[in-house]
Amino acid sequence: GEMTSAAAVYNPKAESMSSRAVTALLTTIRAKATSQAEFVNAADRLMTLLAEEALASLASPASIETPCGTCEGLQLPDGHDLCAVDIVRSGGIMLEAVRRLCPSLKTAKILIQRNEETAEPTLYYAKLPEDIVGKRVILCDPMLATGGSAAMAVGVLRDAGVKEEDILFVATVAAPEGLRLMAERAPGVRILTACVDSGLNERCFIVPGLGDF
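Above: the chain sequence. Below: its structure as tokens.
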């Protein structure tokens, strides 16, 4: 898929994906009429596309030999240099997609839940590998709404010694409000999202959104 600057309007470190496959899968996931089985199938496929793009965005330029010559390309990162972290709520589906593509990476969990009354996040639990410093971190959360949970998770990683520049935050959909908050509170963090939605409603849910993951 192509990358677009739709997200960069709100956050200079953010990119959104743009392809017919992404649009088609998002359409299935968003539709109220979609059955559970169709939703799971489309979500898994979209997570795989996002996970591939996330890994590729951490790749480095490389010159390789082909059977018939040489060619410039991108060398995917070594899994031993990566750690995928899910913000436990529903980040697990995305973390699993990244792990399926790159089985050698480390994984970790940060449990943050949003208070439905106040929309403020609370940190309940964090378990990170001891050697996380120096690794590049893929932080997984299907939705970037207000940005409060994501910013709190980045704070947990920062406290553990991870540099913001080593963090890639991956979300299925992002609201402008969350992208802006991340630009303020975690300006070094890169963000990859499948789509930037129009905004949040009065209950801080993303509109048009995905429903509940």
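The chain has a mean pLDDT of 92.
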